[in-house]
Write a structure and sequence with these properties.
homodimer, about 725 residues, alpha/beta, Chitobiase, domain 2, TIM Barrel, Alpha-d-glucuronidase, C-terminal Domain, 3 domains, 6-stranded mixed β-sheet, 22 helices, Xylan alpha-1,2-glucuronidase (chains A, B), carbohydrate metabolism (chains A, B), alpha-glucuronidase activity (chains A, B), A-glucoronidase_C_sf (chains A, B), polysaccharide degradation (chains A, B)
Chain lengths: ~725, ~725
């Protein structure tokens, strides 16, 4: 068995799988069994002699200038990486007098003969990696304006090495285009994780602050390696206790671990905290006592955590308290908190995910209707955090119409890395492609060529604050994300937060090489599957612009029949509106909700007409007859069935491709991914069968010949119950 | 730095701990950083040349006879162990024609010249390890009556090697003295673990049955390596859903993983399941429809899991339903379930942990009063599972008086490995010493020399069924038990379940050698600390026979002032009865509850008189004046203070000893244990201060000079709140 990896430190045998596997084992005892904990920082030994020789030369004489916790972290990572990749114990000097093969120093600390003129400008977090020829000898330079820049540069250098890239004449100059690159943890103080599918929260609040789990350090390493520079450690459905001294001490311990890695800690602020913590009888943002309470609270926190990032707030949404409870508005609430943290350099991220009191209003328009009128009224240290689409992290949504509609307000992007609506941690879905699809969507406002990426990167408004947040898919599972491929979504989010125009192919290729093997046979085989995997759940869950058809509460599996919830816009029938006449949500100006007008006129015009609406969004904007003809000349009904089948078949194909790659992957991770792909294949069929059987009750048409006929009837699929599906909000349990 | 272990596969550096540590790292980059996942199955490379040569010779020519999933598991473990300890790839043959250096075969498969006459008899799970000289060549033989016996023997051989024991002329013959050696998991279907302090449940019910976590396999390996042969995977506070086909399919997947390792799966049966699952309107055990429901349910389960072990039941206790809800008794309930599983060879474990409806009754007598009269009435496939003491897993309790009082009933021991009352997973406490203290306690009935161990091993009653259960301390934490030393309690429980007379020193030494290093410097230094650690929490929490003084609900930290709960016998004041006149629970016949009479007359006589009551149980049986003189001539009050202080000081000493062993332990585990010891030291002082300040309100006496005066006042300790302490039962949250 051609296994490119190394010596085992774990038994990898599954006896219950019988003798065949046992014989396999006999021949592969030395196969390095991995559990996925090391993420993309595996630093496995480089077996390519030429490459290893080149890297070893560059590592023969190393200078790292400076001395700070960040520099120490840099040195540690460098030594660990070089030691494991090259099997050497590198010696690192800090003196400047000699000539080195590798120099890592801020620009001000570079030797005189180190010439970086001609390289692009970099900002304070950016870095340069370049080789220079000094009297015949090539040397490698990593430089930056700051220690953090050097850390990012060093991580990048180690990643280039893991990818076994030729470093001769390398020239890299990279700066992040977005200031705030944050993870949002929907983690509760009891260690449950709302919409978490990778075990319990990694935050062990009971043992903090005294006990520092190695995971906290490795979490910081992993995030710094992809440029993430902030983390909101608590759930947006917030608990006021996190603001008490008992818990702030624990948060401080985390902040101390993360600081050397350039990561700031943020907290969610429960708006009613002044009341719940027993100090006041109101949380009215215009009440001076309330304002003073938050000022004092901010001082308490900053006394412990001088570089505390600030607050993330979910207010007046899904039962969370907010300014409206006191007859005030979002501007009043956000600006009060902003004033409290401003003296300390903190910020407030105010979420736009709100519900209209008018349950009849089109769900897709509610946030826009409420927030757009406030454009320009928020304090300068406030960002409004907007989900990528107007509904709620569906497999595919058009971009959120607020992007482009609030030119005087810094809008922060909120993506969901955890797969609440995309198969939990059992489905392989490459989300960076979803993220970039949104980032590259043209908003047509303020300018004709403006894209969502330009809005959040501030290149349009030139605002000081820019940000992108990803709802983390991280938990206590040994492999962090439940599914090994969930790591790719964490990795890719970081890369796109650093540069929204980072190539998807490159993200996928880098991650595959570092996570498994740079062997081109492996990479070239699975790279296309990974890129296509983003479209698969769209096809087998919600094709052609359908959305919000999952089962209620836990959101696991199909539930197009869900029709009875406390709000109509929490049901499935509200969104697909299937009936005898057809299917889809009419958001046109002529006969529908008019939500198309939330977009720029150019887009509104396109979306207002089925003929000019992109087919992948057709039923998002239009209610169309089952017999409506699509571009391929087939009926909408046939196309639905074909799309569902296509999604299933593509997963089946991906599964077969994975099986063919057995020789390139260690036993444990190969088996884990294989089991997950089998579950995904089974559940893709489940979605197809449940949805098509349900819709057939309205269409009353035969399934298209391309579609495999369901082997069970609708009542079976309706009967399935999952009382303990993970990630559900306790209060909904 | 003299570090006896090997190459790193993980960054182990804590930059926030600053430069000193960083310099340490420079010199120890090759230190093998371990996360504790491998437990005592690390199989680290043996550097002692002589020993490795001897083992390599024995491994040069190996025969393993037979072919079964168990034999495959045996071969896998043998190859993994030899490969890692000796850095060889062993070749294993199954043919019998040649002469081998190591032969692993059942007695019936041994070569004719393999003579085991003269070795002690072994039972079906026992094994023999011996060397034999065959024409000048020494060979090693592992033999047994069954494949499982061979697996146990092979695990034991690998453990001898990890301890670097000389195998020349080795002769081992070992058989388990107790049939049922079980773990009890108090794991809920939502992955919370009642009284669990090591993260979420390792059972990922959502991904079962399709997804087999590597943990399930390694869990089976670890248990088999110490002889555990059964596991109850669900909480005794039971959920009827586990009995539905949807979940039985998941349990079957676990059973299939565990079977090759000789581990049977058991479930907790919720007594009201026939009603809760919607099939019947009663669960009356004498109702034929109810009996039939359980018969059908048992058939369902055994169709999926032919070797299903049976049911564990908590009935009519702490709100759990039971036969008394229908006017029936424990015998009626247990025998009904027993009848359902009997045709399939299953058993019922019926817990004796019950509460008397009469809240005035002495808590210590309630189980005895209720169960002893039933002696001889239970069906032959029922065991009554009794906690080690009459209250509830306190740091020290006298043995449970039911042991010895029910000669016609198989009593199964229930120990708690998880540290509900012993510092959660932050305190280092060597529980095997607590376990053996109970097992070696003399019951004086039925015979004068009978010990608890003899009762549960059945050597008195000769009953067919014997068993010992340990409430697991296992969770999803990477190191399984939260605290590395928690692994020693899992390990030691297994060893004592196999043989209640196994030497504690040997358990401690074996575990230290395999978990860290066989280096005598290390082992000899920490072995005494480990053995003494059992007494420390007794001293700093509940000295001199005090009990049940923890905070309410979560049981974390001291709460001697707890006085207001829904039952008086859930409070602390009920148990310590401190007042101006003195402290302690009077259980004498003369002035007290008379609970001493639950014991044999010889013991009742001893316990009835403070002068003849062992001092470590003094306040368990007597309420004594603060000025009562103990053997050392000092007052009870002074002795209390001295004991509390002693516990604190001993933890401080253990902490210093650990620091001195830095050179022998890898960075990650050394730091983890150091942080935990610091927390334990802090919390020991907390217990001492809170309890002594509280009791001083009654004694009104000055603290003894030996005792460090508390630095805070009582109101501070009373004010501490821990709303999200782990392990609490959700319904109490």
């Amino acid at each position: 068995m051609n296994n490119p990896v190394h010596k085992s430190n774990k038994a990898i045998f599954r006896p219950f799988q019988g003798l065949l596997l046992f014989l396999l084992l006999l021949s592969s005892l030395h196969a390095y069994s991995e559990n996925g904990y090391d993420l993309w920082l595996r630093y496995s030994l480089i077996e390519n002699e030429a490459i290893r020789t080149q890297y070893t030369q560059f590592s023969s004489k190393i200078r790292v200038a400076g001395n700070s916790p960040t520099i120490n972290a840099l040195k540690s990572e460098l030594m660990t990486g070089l030691n494991k990749m090259l099997d050497i114990t590198p010696q690192i000097s800090s003196v400047s007098t000699e000539s080195y093969a590798l120099i890592i120093a801020t620009i001000s600390n570079l030797p005189d003969n180190a010439d970086i003129t001609g390289m692009p400008e970099i900002n304070d977090e950016g870095y340069i990696i370049m080789t220079q020829n000094v009297n015949g000898n090539e040397r490698l330079i990593v430089t930056a304006r700051t220690d953090i820049g050097l850390l990012y540069g060093t991580f990048n250098l180690l990643q280039l090495m893991q990818q076994q890239r030729d470093l001769q004449n390398i020239e890299v100059a990279s700066s992040p285009r977005i200031n705030l690159r944050l993870l949002n943890h929907w983690d509760n103080l009891d260690r449950t994780v709302e919409r978490g599918y990778a075990g319990a929260s990694i935050w062990n609040w009971q043992k903090l602050p005294e006990y520092i789990d190695q995971r906290y350090i490795d979490y910081a390493r992993a995030n710094a390696s992809i440029g993430i520079n902030g983390t909101v450690v608590t759930n947006v459905n917030a608990n006021a206790l996190i603001l008490t001294p008992q818990y702030v001490d624990k948060v401080k311990a985390l902040a101390d671990v993360f600081r050397p890695y350039g990561i700031k800690v943020y907290l969610t602020a429960r708006f009613s905290a002044p009341v719940e913590l027993g100090d006041l009888d109101t949380a009215d943002p215009l009440d001076p006592a309330v304002q003073e309470w938050w000022n004092v609270k901010a001082n308490e926190i900053y006394n412990q955590i001088p570089d505390f990032g600030g607050f993330l707030v979910k207010a007046n949404s899904e039962g969370q308290p907010g300014p409206q409870n006191y007859g005030r508005n979002h501007v009043d609430g956000a600006n009060m908190l902003a004033a409290a943290v401003k003296p300390h350099g903190g910020i407030v991220m105010w979420r736009a995910f709100v519900y209209s009191p008018d349950e009849g209003a089109d769900r897709a328009s509610q946030a826009s209707k409420e927030f757009v009128p406030y454009d320009g009224q928020f304090a300068e240290n406030v960002l409004v955090q907007v989900k990528n689409g107007p509904i709620d992290f569906q497999p595919r949504e058009p971009f959120h119409p607020m992007f482009g509609a609030m030119p005087k307000t810094p809008l922060m992007m909120e993506f969901q890395i955890t797969q609440e609506y995309l198969g939990f941690s059992t489905h392989l879905v490459f989300l960076p492609k979803l993220f970039q699809e949104v980032l590259h969507s043209r908003t047509y406002q303020p300018n004709r060529n403006t894209r969502v990426a330009d809005i959040i990167a501030g290149t349009e408004g030139n605002q000081a604050l820019t940000g992108m947040a990803g709802v983390a898919n991280i938990g206590s599972d040994i492999n962090w994300t439940g599914h090994i491929f969930g790591q790719a979504n964490w990795f890719g989010f970081g890369k796109l937060a650093w540069d929204p125009d980072y190539s998807l192919e490159q993200i996928a290729e880098e991650w595959l090489k570092m996570t498994f093997t740079p062997d081109p046979e492996f990479v070239n085989s699975f790279l296309p599957e990974l890129l296509e995997s983003r479209e698969m759940p769209v096809s087998y869950m919600t094709p052609l612009g359908l959305h919000h058809m999952m089962d209620a509460g836990h959101h696991y599996g199909p539930g197009p029949w869900i029709s009875n919830m406390s709000r109509p816009d929490w049901t499935s029938v509200y969104y697909h509106k299937a009936d005898k006449s057809g299917i889809g949500f009419d958001r046109t100006t002529t006969t529908g909700s008019g939500a198309v007008n939330d977009y720029a006129p150019e887009l509104a015009k396109l979306f207002n007409d089925p003929a000019t609406t992109p087919e992948e969004l057709l039923l998002w904007f239009h209610h169309l007859p089952w017999t409506y003809k699509l571009k391929n000349g087939r009926t909408l009904w046939d196309n639905l069935g074909m799309k569902y089948q296509e999604g299933v078949d593509e997963v089946g194909q991906m599964l077969e491709t994975w099986k063919s790659l057995r020789p390139y992957v260690d036993e444990e991770r190969y088996e884990e991914i294989l089991m997950h792909l089998n579950i995904q294949f089974k559940e893709a069929k489940w979605w197809k069968n449940a949805c098509m059987l349900y819709f057939q009750e309205f269409s009353e048409m035969p399934f298209p010949p391309e579609m495999t006929v369901p082997d069970k009837d609708l009542s079976y699929y309706k009967s399935l119950k999952f009382p303990y599906a993970p990630g559900i909000r306790p209060s909904w349990d």
